[in-house]
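Help needed: design a sequence for this.
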């Protein structure tokens, strides 16, 4: 086959991995440092942030927090592949509650990534 008869196919565009940033608002101040930590983490991996959720209902357990459940729903809907959080305490200061939520995210096909240590 001559070069003239070959069809060149452009490389297929790949979709960027998409994440949700979930922040806990523990005071009247906006959690700027936590947001920057999550955004920098996403940027370092070339991930796209679809939405940033700021939740101030932290006194409730994870399954009773509508905004945290909305973040989980983005994983279930395949709209995002991960939830970025600044610390485990963002989900729950109780290890068992955090681990259960992380398992739910994993069962839905995603993961929870802590961006600050």
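Sure. Designed sequence:
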């Amino acid at each position: 086959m001559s070069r003239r008869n070959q069809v060149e196919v452009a490389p297929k565009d790949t979709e960027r991995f998409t994440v949700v940033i979930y922040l806990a608002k523990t005071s009247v101040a906006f959690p700027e440092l936590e947001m920057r930590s999550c955004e920098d983490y996403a940027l370092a991996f070339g991930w796209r942030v679809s939405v940033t959720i700021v939740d101030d209902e932290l006194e409730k357990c994870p399954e009773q927090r509508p905004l945290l459940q909305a973040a989980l729903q983005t994983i279930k809907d395949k709209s995002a592949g991960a939830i970025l959080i600044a610390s485990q305490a963002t989900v729950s200061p109780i290890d068992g509650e955090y681990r259960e939520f992380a398992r739910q995210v994993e069962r839905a096909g995603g993961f929870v990534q802590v961006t600050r240590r």
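The helical segments are 32-45, 66-76, 95-107.
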